[in-house]
Amino acid sequence: MRTLRRKSPTTVVVAALAALSLAACGEAGSGGDGGGGDTEVEVAENAAEDFDEGTRMRELAEAGNITIGVKYDQPGIGFKGATDDIPVGFDPEMGKILAGSLGIAVDDITWKETISDNREPFLQSGEVDLVIASYSINDERRAVVGQAGPYYVTGQQLLVPTDSDISTLEDIKGTEVCSVTGSTSLENIEAEGGKARGFDTYSECVDQVLGGTVDAMTTDGAILLGYAAEHPDELKVVVEPFSEERYGVGYSKDFPEMCEWISSTIEQSYEDGSWEEAFKATLGQSGVDTPEQPELDPCQ
Ligand code: GLU
């Protein structure tokens, strides 16, 4: 495979919608602005020539479209309000950067909502080409799908009502804690002794905390901060991170060549500033500090 050239002289800049415009105008589900918006992405010209014949990247570049699975209900990470045209958040931004390296403009990306439990099935069935959906890399998942990255590292915490007595991990023993089926969070909290209750989506779980039917919600701090920012008077994030969640880009094991492409495009986004710009426009808006750029795993 030829080396990927994203910053070539033929690269053109295509302006996406103005930063934050969608988020500012859109209605945002449970009340917030979705935690961040659109940035401009580079779209490579004649990108198909950058990839060898027979590779999935070449096929996608020639087809001129790609289907990407993202979350629709996680402010700052992946969010689509009722009147939004496209999802916004750090994960969709990474999707736009990857698509751009294939010469695919934002308008030619098909976004598909994924929930935690259908990420592997969607990749295995070809329903989506990529999953970029707060998708922690782990061995269990890597046994059935490819995961390149990490492009972001966070850790699991707790979201509780502002007047809650829960302030340490010990406090959750015997309490009802919700999370999402198919997530690492649900498995981890069971191991910590909470009475785990699994829902399909994090927005359902947040509603349980707001309604007082569970004592706490748990998942990655980055996700929880997005919800806390939407309900600052009602919710707060507590306890130090008690797991390490390394977000990767999921792809099908039928196309192992995608790993090098995804990894080199993420590397390039570190170098050209687009990763940082994407972060600041999205998760950064939820109050998350811009972290170190994680070192990428080698492709097998
Ligand atoms: N990052 C964790 C996971 O992949 C929790 C967040 C999620 O469910 O998307 O399971």
Describe this structure in words.
The chain is an alpha/beta fold. The chain contains ten helices and 14 strands. The longest helix has 15 residues, at 258-272. Helices cover 29% and strands 21% of the residues. The structure holds glutamic acid (GLU). Glutamic acid binds at residues 116, 133-136, 180, 183-185, 219-220, 245.
Question: Segments where pLDDT lies below 50 for 5+ residues?
Answer: 1-32
What do we call the CATH topology of the largest domain?
D-Maltodextrin-Binding Protein, domain 2
Alpha carbon gyration radius? 19 Å
Note the gap between the termini.
Answer: 15 Å
Number of separate helices: 10
Shape: globular
Taking strands numbered 1, 2, ... along the chain, how are they ordered across the largest sheet? 11-10-12-9-13
Helix content: 25-40%
Bound molecules: glutamic acid
**Name of the CATH architecture of the largest domain:** 3-Layer(aba) Sandwich
Please tally the β strands and state the result.
14
Short description:
The protein has helices at residues 21-25, 56-63, 90-101, 119-125, 139-142, 184-191, 202-211, 221-230, 258-272, 274-281; strands at 12-14, 41-43, 66-70, 73-74, 78-79, 109-113, 130-131, 146-154, 156-161, 176-180, 195-199, 216-220, 235-238, 245-251. It has 300 residues and is an alpha/beta fold.
Topology:
Elements: E1 12-14, H1 21-25, E2 41-43, H2 56-63, E3 66-70, E4 73-74, E5 78-79, H3 90-101, E6 109-113, H4 119-125, E7 130-131, H5 139-142, E8 146-154, E9 156-161, E10 176-180, H6 184-191, E11 195-199, H7 202-211, E12 216-220, H8 221-230, E13 235-238, E14 245-251, H9 258-272, H10 274-281
Helix pairs in contact: 3-9, 3-10
Bound molecules: glutamic acid (GLU).
Residues 116, 133-136, 180, 183-185, 219-220, 245 line the site of glutamic acid.
Keywords: Signal, Transport
Domain Solute-binding protein family 3/N-terminal: 65-286
Protein name: Solute-binding protein family 3/N-terminal domain-containing protein
